[in-house]
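Researcher: Quick test of sequence recovery. Tokens follow.
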């Protein structure tokens, strides 16, 4: 009997191409969710590739991903066009995120350790420092790190993964660029940390849900202001 062969490793170039495709998809997804790319807009392969400094291939693959998500559709002989984004679509996305996040929050209240709560405190301090420096990218990264640590403390890895998957539709940069949002996020995190130390399940779940309610209201207000639904 022949010895089993080791699985082939994919070339580094293929891995990098997948990363580029994901990055392009994330950029286009955010532009669609914020109204920068409006419904009915055709996304041209060559123009998009040139604007993002990539080849056409990752753009084509990114559009295939977004087509599967229902964010663009392919019109024969014309290309990919942005499909309508309704107010209900936005509300549904945030509702789903809130539903998963509140379930995770209730579990965290029972399972999180004192050391993990201390880590959340440290991560919130990092967010506060980023907000003080008005560093948008650092704010977005610090906010992500805080919630990742919080969700991982539940031990419900699959459910946390589903939340991360849905969170792709949350355009974090528009929140990170709003100084008022940053100050509010820090204050809410401090309330959450206090509630975690008290094991106050009701407050933990309420605060978690409030973050998504606020996020939906801010995005809808931005899209209204941009005249997306006028």
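Model:
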């Amino acid at each position: 009997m022949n010895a089993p062969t080791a699985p082939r490793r994919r070339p580094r170039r293929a891995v990098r191409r997948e990363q580029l495709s994901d990055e392009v998809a994330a950029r286009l997804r955010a532009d669609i969710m914020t109204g920068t790319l409006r419904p009915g807009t055709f996304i041209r392969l060559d123009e998009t590739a040139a604007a993002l400094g990539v080849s056409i291939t990752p753009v084509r693959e990114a559009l295939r991903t977004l087509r599967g998500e229902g964010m663009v559709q392919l019109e024969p002989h014309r290309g990919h066009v942005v499909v309508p984004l309704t107010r209900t679509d936005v509300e549904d996305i945030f509702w789903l995120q809130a539903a998963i996040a509140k379930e995770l929050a209730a579990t965290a209240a029972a399972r999180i350790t004192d050391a993990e709560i201390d880590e959340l405190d440290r991560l919130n301090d990092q967010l506060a420092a980023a907000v003080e420096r008005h560093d948008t990218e650092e704010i977005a990264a610090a906010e992500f790190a805080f919630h990742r640590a919080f969700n991982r403390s539940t031990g419900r890895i699959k459910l946390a993964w589903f939340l991360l998957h849905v969170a792709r539709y949350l355009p974090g940069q528009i929140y990170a660029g709003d100084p008022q949002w940053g100050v509010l996020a820090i204050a809410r995190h401090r309330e959450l940390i206090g509630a975690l130390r008290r094991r106050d399940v009701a407050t933990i779940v309420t605060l978690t849900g409030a973050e998504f309610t606020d996020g939906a209201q801010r995005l809808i207000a931005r899209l209204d202001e941009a005249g997306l639904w006028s």
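The beta strands are 42-43, 72-75, 79-82.
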